[in-house]
Amino acid sequence: xADRDELIRRRPLVAEVAAxxxxxxDPLAHVERTCDRIAAIDGRIRAFVAEPDRRGRLRxxxxxxxxxxxxxxGRPALFxxxxxxxxxxxxxxxxTGAGSAxxxxxxxxxxxxxxxxxxxxxxxxxxxxxxxxxAVTAPGPTRNPHHLDHSPGGSSSGxxxxxxxxxxxxxxxxxxVGSMIRPAAYCGVVGFKPSYDRVPVAGVIANAPSLDTLxxxxxxxxxxxxxxxxxxxxxxxxxxREATGAGRALPxxxxxxxxxxxxxxxxxxxxxxxxVExxxxxxFTVRxxxxxxxxxxxxAQQFVVNRYEVARTHAQWFPRFGHLYRPETVAAxxxxxxxxxxxxxxxxxxxxxxxxxxxxxxxxxxxxLWITPAATGTAPRGLATTGNSVxxxxxxxxxxxxxxxxxxxxxxxxxLGVQCVARAGADEELLGWxxxxxxxxxxxxxxxxxxxxxxxxxx
Length: 459
Known about the structure:
Layout: H1 2-7, H2 13-22, H3 27-45, H4 54-68, E1 82-86, H5 113-120, E2 124-129, H6 157-164, E3 170-175, H7 181-187, E4 190-193, E5 213-218, H8 221-231, H9 237-242, E6 252-257, H10 266-281, E7 285-290, H11 295-313, H12 318-321, H13 327-337, H14 341-365, E8 369-373, H15 393-398, E9 402-410, E10 414-421, H16 427-441
Parallel strand pairs: 1-2, 1-3, 6-7, 6-8
Antiparallel strand pairs: 3-5, 4-5, 4-9, 8-10, 9-10
Pfam family, one: Amidase
GO molecular function, one term: catalytic activity
Protein name: Amidase
């Protein structure tokens, strides 16, 4: 527990924003504390890609932010906030390595739209966070802050671990199958995967373009909701507020029973069932609805789409640099090269039909949100795997928004999460309903209660 007590920190984003925008906290002093925290612990966690003068670069970024908005009035939504950026997203002033040995000069590109939006909102980029190679499956070196000999998940491993360890209050990741929801659950933070295409992917190295989705990590739901309004297209702030307005009923929740849920470990399902009872006790209606009896087909067709597109993404790089790729990535590309175009077209049609079925079932059953375990269990021991993404797979395939909130832990103190899934486009409603779910699932084992005072800016 000594390591955990030292390494786990809560830095609620909204509190940091309030202190920075009001002038209570100075951006330059704030990035100094952030750099101190990274220097103190990231040698053990390895959430960030190394850079030669992080402190000097961040001082310059913070000074520029302070000069741009010298007066508190009118300061933007993320004024002075340090953000971790997954190392497949181009950011001016930082190289993109994508967790690979491919020469960085081959991976250059214009700054990503998401980083441009963060910086326009006053954020400073604390650094690039570690990713699985090309955001596929070959793990990076990042360790789980709760137990250093366990995986943090992937592929957005560095972003999840950086938030869990209080190195930054906000980080950006991507999800193709389970690359955000799973690491958020493993690391005991909140992860938000918006609806497909709500956050532009321009300037981001692709994995599988018809599945890739950009999202956010923060210590709590309020943090991801605050940042979502900055990065998502056409954010409907009124819809989020209305979801929890005075007199509004709690959302109707449903557990999708059948072969999909059967993929979770027995102890994780037992823990999830206890959380379902907590939600019922908090006033939620929770139904058990049979869904996805053909889950094996959903799994198989998603795999076809994923692998076919991975191979096409690397069609230019792989012939020249394939010898530098790791075996897991090579295997994924080789699998995709064997997929016939007709099979891919059929899988894409299946994907569209499955998305329609998700929405039709929600409407027919009067469901607002599906709830499920966020992962099959806790973070696996060792760094050879990023864990099993199957609990996230159907929702990524359908392109619907998903959120995970911390939901207890299993021995030896490894976190679990509850995943909440809405219809496509209902991102605002999902984040409006989520605080009540977060409150109901919070227990002593999920609260990250350390001596760190977020309002004091320690980190």
